[in-house]
UniProtKB/TrEMBL annotation, chain A:
Record key words, sorted: Membrane, Transmembrane, Transmembrane helix
Listed transmembrane segments: 36-56, 62-83, 92-112
Biased composition, class Basic and acidic residues, residue ranges: 17-26, 145-154
Organism: Fluviispira multicolorata
Protein name per Swiss-Prot or TrEMBL: Uncharacterized protein
Annotated region (Disordered), positions in chain: 1-26, 134-154
UniProt biased composition (Basic residues): 1-11
UniProtKB/TrEMBL annotation, chain B:
InterPro entries: Cyt_c/ubiquinol_Oxase_su3, Cyt_c_oxidase-like_su3, Cyt_c_oxidase_su3-like_sf, Cyt_c_oxidase_su3_a-hlx
GO cellular component: plasma membrane
Name of the molecule in the record: Cytochrome c oxidase subunit 3 family protein
Record-annotated Heme-copper oxidase subunit III family profile domain positions: 29-221
Bilayer disposition of the protein: Multi-pass membrane protein
Alphabetized Pfam families for the sequence: COX3
Record's subcellular location: Cell membrane; Membrane
Protein origin, superkingdom: Bacteria
Taxonomy of the source species: Bacteria, Pseudomonadati, Bdellovibrionota, Oligoflexia, Silvanigrellales
Amino acid sequence: MLKIVRNKKRQNSSEHSSGDQKHSHNNEHGLLPVRLYVGIFIVLLMMIFMNIGISMLPIPSIWIVSLLIFVAIIQTILVAVFYMELIHEDKFYSFVFGSAVLFMLLFFGITLGEIRGRDFFTATEGVKMMRGVDQNGNFAPGGPKLEKKSEGSH
Amino acid sequence: MSAHNHEGEHSKFLAHHFKSMSQQTAAGKLGMWIFMAQELLFFSGLFCAYGFMRFMYPDMVTQGQSSMDWRLGGINSVILLVSSLTMSLCVRSARSNNKAGTVKFLVATMICGLLFLVIKGSEWGMHFHEGYFPGKFFNPVAHAEIQDPLAHIFFGLYYVMTGMHGLHIVVGLGLMTWMLVRANRGEFSSENYVSLENTSLFWHLVDIVWIFLYPLLYLAK
């Protein structure tokens, strides 16, 4: 015990600055037990089978997709917290990764919200959107040439 | 745990522009997390395209998904999950100064990555056999289940998403090969492990991307 304390003291005295001491504290975290890694693996495995089960449920598609994404998010959190060891890393790493998640959600929200807005304008303002045309494949970039397309081009 | 830390001494793995190994480790990890934030935003563009496609062509996407074999996708999910476990144990072994364990778990992770690519490649092969090529090359054979010409949009995105993911697997395997060489040289220890841990973080990110790809491409009918 005394030896450990002495080693630690020597280690601290060799640090050049208080900033380094902070880094040292952040990076020299303990090891997670192997049993925990295996436990997380089993939970993640069960979640894969849970997702397969959800896909076979006789419920509307929107609920299936929502449930699948919900389970996937929990799986992601488990991987990030335990396998990527965010549980005992510097909280700044979580902030960096979390801010990317935040911008991703903003990106999804704005982009996918805009599509819903198109339907709103189509219904209320009578604005003709490309979607109706697109269903025929006419405006699909690089798509196969349909008969309608060749007619339209003349 | 024996303290195997020579902060005061100049480690041979310490780059000249760092004061100590712990500072070097912190800088390396921060750089990796910033890179991973960027990776997340990169893949989010593809997932957003998927959401867009699903909203615009719900019937076509359902039809396209009917050609996906959820069993093969499930096997690949399990393989990637096992690889994540072995990669975590690999870093743990390195930090415990267990060279044999580090090498063993690294090789196990690489085998899982290769298996994943083989299964993914065979899936692509099956789709090509049916004529489900991306974009303007989409030309299903007569007996193919999907004949809707719009399905080229689904397969285009499917190849891009799984292809980019596969490319990340290949990059991960390349990094692991490099780590294997270094591990064999006995370079990793409780003092010097940041490059191995960064490789592990990259591999876990690849796993996270697949955690979303599998349900969205194979299961969400």
